[in-house]
Every structure is written in C-alpha cells, then in structure tokens.
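Q: Fold this one first, please.
A: Sequence and structure below.
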Amino acid sequence: MSETRMDLSDPDVDPFEVARAAAAVIAERTGVERHDVALVLGSGWGGAADLIGETRAVIDNADVPGFSRAAVVGHSGTIRSVSLGDTDRRALVYGTRTHFYEGKGVRAVVHGVRTAAATGCRQVVLTNGCGGLRPEWAAGTPVLISDHLNLTAASPLEGATFVDLTDLYSARLRALAREVDASLDEGVYVQFRGPHYETPAEVRMAGILGGDLVGMSTTLEAIAARHAGLEILGISLVTNPAAGTSDQALSHQEVIEAGQAAAARCGRLLADVVTRIATED
C-alpha cells in the first residue's frame, strides 16, 4: 500500500491493511516477528511501562502507518517493545491512544488494537483514568472492568459485522489479575464522548444504567479488539470522584497527579498481571 493510501479517514482504505502495514514496520524496527500481549497506557498509567520489563526498542508513533503523536498531556507518543521478565515473550506497549473526541474517526481510535492483533498479540490490556461513582474507591484505586456502556453513539465495526460482546472483558484474565492482587474490585465502565467532563446529571444517569466508572476511552477499542480475536483485560484507575459525587471540581491536572501518586502500585500491578498473562497463555 502506498503512503497515499494509509489515510484511515478515507472510506476506500482498508483499515486492516493499514494495521498490517503498521505491524510490518513494528517488526522491522523491533527485530522480532511477533509480540504476545499489548498494553494501552491511559491517563495515570504511563509509569507502568518502566516496570513491565526491559525495553528493547522504542518507536515514535509518527513513524508507524496510521498512528499520530500524543494529543493529551501525560501521555507518551511512543510504542515500546518490552521483554517480559525471564521469558521470551514480548509486550507491545502503547504510551498513548487516539481518543474519540479528537475527531480523527473511529478507525483511528481502534487502530492500535488492530495493529496489536496484526503483530501476533493474543491479549490486550486496556487501561484508563476515570471518575468513580462508588465512595469507597478513593483516588488512586485500580478497578477491573467487568462490562461497559458505550455512550458514544459509534461503533468501530462497519457494515453487517455482528460480534458477540457477552463476555467482552475476559473473566479468565480478571481472575489472573485477582491472583496478583486479591483486593481488586470490579465495575462497569461508561464511555462518554468528551472532551468535556460529565455533568452531575449525566453521572447520575450512568449510575442508574448500571455504571460504576465514567471516562472517555476504552469501549470502542474493546469492541474492535474482540472483533480482531484478542482476549481483553480492562483496568481503570480511579483518579477522581465523578462529577456530583463530591464537592471537588474536576481537572485534568488532578487526573495526572492521582496517576503519579498511584504510579508505584499500579505499575507493579500491571507488570505482574502482564507477566502472569504471558506465562499462563
């Protein structure tokens, strides 16, 4: 595919062909034919990359077809190839994601997980920073995602593509995560479009619908990952109480600070979980 045919916003371009082209560049730059597990590091999770294992290669997003530079403060615009402990397994670590609110289209949002599948990954760990609806989840609490509500009014699937999402977030991987940290709770993640934070009324609506966590990412990636054949683990970091559940004003700086405060715990948790996934598979 020529460089002029790599535009994911072009409806005549096959997004899976772009993902295969991206995987080929990653293989060339990392010197390995395949990766085993992928991680998408959301707000508050950036420090985890250094604890997962030894970084063997770092690739600038702009050098890989279909990817773009980080658009959010606190995210890293690179892709890392990381060795997992003493194993021969490799993790593909995305330091950022494309958010739906950036206006680049759903194809761009899910390009990372489709590329991960094209590199050979069988599992993906999707992380995010979010607002929590439960008062017992203080800022800095990691929570496993058991299910989601997609309130973006969009889907990464095109045409008559029907995919079962009954067990979208793997019960097996959640059980592995709880073997690492038995205190991990779980809840339903709700994705709003953003980039504005939710109103108190919208948060109350999310709770009535069964939501426990609110944010601006993850659900579209999870759907695309299932379609691509990946097993999915979702982990949210509660960075703040959701709007209306406390008297605190919301700010992105608060999200960054909560992530920094929880970096050691969350980084170690993620490293141990990813190693467990790779060795159990």
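Q: Good. Now the second chain.
A: Here it is, same layout.
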Amino acid sequence: MLTTLAIQNYRSLRDLVLPLSQLTVIVGANGTGKSSLYRALRLLADAGRNGAVAALAGEGGLPSTLWAGPETMSRAVREGRAPVQPLRRTKSVGLRLGYSGDEFGYALDFGLPIPSETAFNLDPEYKRECVWHGPVLRPSALLADRSGTRVRIRDEAGSWIESGHSIALTDSMLGEFADPRLCPELLIVRDRVRGWRFYDHFRTDADAPARQSRIGTRTWALDHDGGDLAAALRTIQESTDADALATAIDDAFPGSSIEVTAADGRFDLRFHQHGLLRPLSAAELSDGTLRYLLWAAALLSPRPPELLVLNEPETSLHPDLLPALAALITAAAKKTQLLVVSHSQLLVRFLEDASVLELEKDFGATVVAGPGRLDQPSWHWPKR
C-alpha cells in the first residue's frame, strides 16, 4: 500500500506531502488544487510507461506546469506590508514527484536541459530518479539511483554496480532498466506504477462510447472511456461479484436489474426497470443512470489494481444515488487502495473508514487544511 504522496513545484502544489490510507478522499473548494493533484499522480504513473515527458508536453511543457509563485514568501509579504516581487529563480528548476509505501519508494526530478542548438530546449529531462526500500529515502535504503545519464544498481551483497551504458535524459530508468537480472525491485516498482488505474469524467452524451453496441471480449477492467461497458458488466456477472453487482443496481434503482446479451460477438446492455414493459438499451438510458453503471463496472472489477484513483465520481449523479455510490467505493476499498477526489460533502459523509484531506490555498500554494507542517509524513527528496 502507498503511504505517502509527495509533489513539489507542480502548478499550485508548491510543496505537498500527503499521508495516504486504504481509502483517501481529497476535498476542497474550487481552485484549491484538487485537479492538479489528480494530474500530478497521473504524471507519476506515466513515468512507468516512459510517457511523462510527452504528458508534460501536452500540458504546455515544463515552464507551463511549474509553480509560478515566489521561491520564498517573506513575513512582510504575508502581513501585507510588501508586494510580491517578480519571479526570479535563484535555484535550479525542478518538478519533483514521488511516493513511498510499505515496501518501496520512488521519486523523480524533472528539469530543463542545458540550452543548445536544438528545437527541443523546452523538453524536460530526468535530472534524478531513485528507488528505495522502505517508507523514507535514506542512502542505505537506495536500490537504484539515476543521476543524469548514469544509472547504478545495488547488488545482492549491497555493493553498487554501474549499468554500463548511459540512458537518454528523456527516458525513465523504470522503462529502460527494469530487468529482473539487474534489479528485480525496479521491475516490481515499474509494474505496480503501470498498474495504477485512473477514472475521470465518463462521457454520457448521445455519442458516448458506452452507449454504442460493440464487439466485446472478457473484460477484467473497464476501459477509461467506458466503451467496453457491456462486456465489463457481463464479465462481472460471470464472476464471484455477480451478487454485488445486482445489489449495487438494486440499491440505486430499486426493483431494477441489467441484462447483457451477446450475439455474433457484439455485446448489448439492457436495463430492466420496474414499471416498464420492455428493457431500455444503453442509448436510451439517462446520463445519471449510465454514469452510475460505469462507476459500478469500474469499482467491481474482478481484477482490482493496487491503486484506483477516481476524479469527482459524483459528477452528474442525483444526490439520491450517492449512498449507493458510497457503498460501492467503501466495498472496493476492502480489495484495493483508493484515492478519491470529490466536490461532494454528501458523498464523503456516506463513505465509511475514509481518511479525508481538505485542501486550501495559502498565498497561491496548495496546503492541507488543519494539521501543521510538522504533522505531515517524513519525506526526503533526492538531491541533484
């Protein structure tokens, strides 16, 4: 299980270290940094697929994502006796992301390249990457250490081994050196990070993928766009969670049930509702009903990931559906670690055994409301 998430210099997340539990819920007013936290976690997962540089480019490049406030905030500025001075960086530019857990920790440090005759001077580079054993980075706990193009790995005897060849500054060592012969722990970390599952706002418009009839196969995990909804629900129905799915639908829509038909490999969803003479197709369902079925398919996956991240699952759902959604989330948290970003205090109220972290702004920077800085988990960034 992940126990700590650390982010530095990503948008409003100037220096954030969060404790994570089996079910962590992130709440806060608009503009406090909830969406930035979700995107930062996705960016961290992209590193395991060697896709973090491309993901940053899609956000406008490293300069667009860096903390835009001052490096330090004087007491006079905080008390309103002096204006905020224009940004002048005196330290090296760095966007840092990391996590630690019961077994391993991982951190990366992105920076800008040394200017040269190239059109790619805004491409972020890996300045430092580390994998360690245990919850806190310590020199003695390091298992794999990347500095620039150089990677070294600790062998079974505890001695450092040089990789023997350099790594491109835009590539992650998770993708390039995850070899069980060199460092099996690096392979474990990479596969776990790649296995994290993210669900954002599902489409429910008339042309939404979930409303279409599609050729399907056995689907252990709902796709991010929900296009394989019918196949995913049928897979759940043929698994040990069939009763849980039936209960989840009856909790939300009393007396209702679903049927998934398959003909010539094409899967179609039928929604049976009390009082109607025929079932409704996916194309006929209301946005709220379809969205709830999508969340049910995501949360009842027969093969849950190590970490499941949901972004505002309450969106477009009637308040009457939130108790049933909360029950799904609570049940899923017994099988996998969940992080939920939510605007809904009502949903949070219905969740059981959830650790709730409220975000707020402090002179433009995202902080956790309530506990002071000394209450945050211990965390050390690798130095360049």
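Q: Anything worth noting on the second one?
A: The longest strand covers residues 2-10.
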